[in-house]
Every structure is written in structure tokens, then in C-alpha cells.
Amino acid sequence: MTEKNATKGMERRSFLRYTAAAGAGLVFRPLMRAQTRSTSAPSIDNDINVAILGTGAEGQVLINSCLKIPGLRFRAVCDIWEAWNQKRAARYLQKYGHDLNRYIDYQEMLASENDLDAIIIATPDFWHEEHTIASLEAGLAVYCEKEMSNTLEGARNMVEAQRRSGQLLQIGHQRRSNPRYQHAYYRLLKDAKLLGTITTINGQWNRSVQPDNSWPDGMAVPPEILSRYGYESMHQFRNWRWYQGLGGGPIVDLGSHQIDIYNWFLEDTPTSVMASGGTDYYDPDTHEWYDNVLAIYEYGNREVNVKAFYQTITTNSNEGYFENFMGDQGSLMISESASRGGVYKEPGVENWDKWVKLGYLKAPEEEEAEDQQQQGAVLDVRETLAPPAHEIPVELNDPYHKPHLENFFNTIRGTDTLNCPVEIGYETAVTVLRVNDAVEAGNKLSFDPDEFHI
Predict the structure, then answer these.
(1) What is the DSSP letter of 195?
(2) Residue 213 and residue 382: Cα distance in Å, rounded?
(3) Which of 148, 147, 138 has the alpha carbon at shortest distance from 117?
(4) Which of 322, 323, 321, 296 is nearest to 307 (CA)?
(5) Residue 424: what are its φ and ψ, rounded to 5°?
(6) What's the angle, vertex CA 425, arms to CA 420 and CA 430, rounded to 5?
(7) What is the DSSP secondary structure assignment for residue 160, as one 8-state letter?
(8) Contacts (Cβ under 8 Å, ≥6 apart) of 352
(9) Residues 408 and 143 sit within 8 Å (Cβ to Cβ)
(10) Max CA-CA distance within the chain?
(11) Residue 296 and residue 307 in contact, taking contact as beta carbons nearer than 8 Å
(12) Backbone phi, then psi, for 342, in 5-degree steps?
């Protein structure tokens, strides 16, 4: 390792220790906020009063997950699409016994609701900065969906606001709380070091062609409301992810989840990125961001450099989505979908029976292993037989977002620490948002290590 790389590694480890300490410090702020806002006597129970800001598709997913978590009371929903999103979410929550108010304007909600403890923000990316900062300044713990912001300036402002306020801010990279991913990181990579030295990563999220989001006849948001909240048309409101200035396209909307895992599992941030992309299928007048992106990251702060490839293809759904970490002793394929994935031992590596007995892995099916051995006898010498898969012995039978939301609410109660505090979310925002810059530049872009720190 060169002196320069050693210095970078020390800086990185120092930063990781800092963010871990910051998260640990936040655990000691249990459910105190309601007492500072409300003039009435505080509740003596341990329920958390929650508002949700943004009740579109992602908001509905988060609501469904929250309904499986005990001890939450929804007090308010806020969405500018009053006739559809807002009304639908409110009725759904009321059906489950939540007594709440409805709002179009988030400022009115923050001024009127005096007994809130936390807020879930599931609005479009370009609103995250303003909504998060206002909520933190109002004394609320905030769960903000990823991407933190559609701009790095906005993401930096969110970090600074969290530090000023001292309130909790969890970013919605939900794989960080997924028990399968946690098992892979803490047991397979950290404890057992089953992959050896990781040298390469592959990942993708491919989706088939889909029509643009529409809306029911007679249910459009009034033009004056759309304009007030930053939209030029109902089509733009319903398909904001494709518009520059509002979202970041599929590489941000989808890739952010998986590229975040690259950084996490490597305990590193990249040194460079190059990317190719284009609006290859959709109408560029209504799909301003690239529908296909191929990106290559280099991680050079370790003893062995790592090349990490990622693609998001939105014209074909072949093979769906996964992350594949390849080392000199084994490979790990993992996905949020439990039906995909496994751990594969390289030939010649000592058997993994020890780790099977410890419960770190499931042994391959016996028939599969025998078939592989028999086939190995007739293989051409130039061929490499795929090893049998050891399965990850952990399943998530709950909605994907539930563990991350539970982590957030448990941290409010003082019984846990955040799995994705704002500093980690910022690292990922820097890593991902630069991909679109690399596509536009048409060449490799380098990262300064200081870019990931505030």
C-alpha cells in the first residue's frame, strides 16, 4: 500500500468511527420532543405521533409498513393531490383507527400539529431539502426517503440542519436494516471473511418498458396548485422522476439503493466513476433523464483496487435486480428479493462446513453438490464449473421497508441507533449523483475524498 493510499484508508476509518459515534449519540434522545411543542400534558404512553408528507406510491408503501409496527399513531397526512393521494391515504389510515387531519400545505401542517414526534417524508426528491429542514427545525425526528436530494447542495444543507437541530434524521436506504443484508455484512464478510479479498462488484436493476403514469379523469391537481409547488403540468407531477430539476432518473431512483450497498460492504467510497447513458427508448421531451445507464466505479483506497459495475436498463426486465460481490475465495449474490442469491465457494478453498454448523450458511442441496462433482470429471480443462450455492439462512417475511422504519422509531424511543444516519446518506448521494455528471462529461470523473465529508 502506498503512503497516499494508507493515509486515505486512515481518513476513511476515522470517518466511519465518527459517523458510528454520531449515530450512537442520537440514541439518547428518547421521545422528548412532544413535551417541548405541546402546551397540554404530555402523553404518558410510549406511542409515537407521526405525520406523513407525500402519500403517492412510495408513501403508500411506507404507510403499509408502518401499519405493521405497533405503537404508532398517525396524526396528519399531507399531499398536494387532495382529491386522490391525500384523501386515499387518510381514509386508509382512518380505517385502521388513526384519528388524523389532512393538509395540502406542509407549513400549515407543521404550524398546526403540536403533538407530533416524527414525520415521514416521501415527496419528490427536489422537495426533500426544504421539507426535511423545516421538519427538523420544528423539532421533529425525520425519516426521509432516498435520494436525500436531487442536488449535492441540498443534501449538504440537510446534513448541516440535522447537526444544528440535534434531531434524528434517517435516510431511506432500507437495505441497511434488512436482516439478510445485515447477516451478509456482519457474519459473512466481517466475521467469516468468506469472500477473501473482494476485487469486483456487479449490480443491476432492469425494468421493462412501462407507460407513463396517468391520472383519473376529473382528478387532476388544479393548475395553480401545481405551479405553486414547482410543477409545469400534471404529467410532470405524475412522472417527476424523469425530469431534470425534479429527480435524477433511474440511476438515482433505482441505482441509489444498490450502489449504497457497494459503499457499505466495501467500507469505502469510490475514487472515480465513468458512465455511458442515453434516452434510448422514451421520448426525450417527456423523459429528460437517461433511460439506460452503465457505470463503472473504481475503489482505490484499499490494498487491492476494486472495479464495480452497475447498470439500470429500463427497456428490458432481464434478470431483475441484484448485487454480486466477487472475491478470490468466493462470491456473494444478494438481492432484496429472497428468491435470488447465494454464496459460492471457489474451487480449492477449504470447505465451509464450519460456517454451516455455526448457522452462517445453509449447506448446498446434496443432490446438487453430487451432480456438480460428477460433471466436473468430464469438463473441458478450459471450463470452470459453477460451484453449488450455499444459501443465506435469513429470510425477511415482512415488507422490505418495515425493518428500516422500525429502526427509526426504536431510535426515537432510545432503544436503538440509526442504521442510515444523514452522513451515510450523504456519502451515497455524492456517489450516485455524480453518475449523471459522468454521462454528460463523457469521460472518467475523479472523486476527492473530501467530497464525502461535511
Answers:
(1) T
(2) 50
(3) 138
(4) 296
(5) -70, -45
(6) 155
(7) H
(8) 194, 345, 361, 390
(9) yes
(10) 79
(11) yes
(12) 170, 170
> Helix count (H) and strand count (E) of the chain?
16, 15
Query: Tens of pLDDT along the chain (454 residues)?
Result: 343 343 334 334 333 433 333 333 333 344 544 334 433 333 436 899 999 999 999 999 999 999 999 999 999 999 999 999 999 999 999 999 999 999 999 999 999 999 999 999 999 999 999 999 999 999 999 999 999 999 999 999 999 999 999 999 999 999 999 999 999 999 999 999 999 999 999 999 999 999 999 999 999 999 999 999 999 999 999 999 999 999 999 999 999 999 999 999 999 999 999 999 999 999 999 999 999 999 999 999 877 899 999 999 998 998 899 999 999 999 999 999 888 889 999 999 999 999 999 999 999 986 444 544 544 444 455 566 667 899 999 999 999 999 999 999 999 999 999 999 999 999 999 999 999 999 999 999 999 999 999 9
Cell numbers describing residue 429:
448521494
Who's near 292: CB < 8 A, 6+ residues apart? 277, 278, 280, 281, 311, 312, 313, 314, 315
Residue 77 backbone phi and psi in degrees, to 5: -125, 145
- Report whether 389 contacts 367 (CB < 8 A): no
Measured CA to CA, the distance from residue 389 to residue 362 in angstroms comes to: 9
Please choose, from the candidates 405, 436, 422, the residue with its C-alpha nearest in 3D space to the C-alpha of residue 63: 405
Candidates 81, 72, 41, 70; CA nearest to 141 is 72
Residue 445 C-alpha cell reads as 470523473
State the Cα–Cα distance between residues 452 and 382, nearest whole angstrom.
Answer: 44
Give the gyration radius of the chain's Cα atoms: 23
Strands (E) in 105-189, as ranges, are 118-121, 141-144, 169-171
Q: Helix, strand or coil for residue 394?
A: coil
Expressed in percent and rounded to 5, the helix, strand and coil fractions of the chain are 40, 20, 40
How far is Cα of residue 27 from the mean position of the Cα atoms in its chain? 21
Helices (H), 382-447: 402-413, 422-441
Closest CA to 268 of 201, 324, 220: 201
How many C-beta neighbours within 10 Å does residue 159 have? 19
pTM of the full predicted structure?
0.89
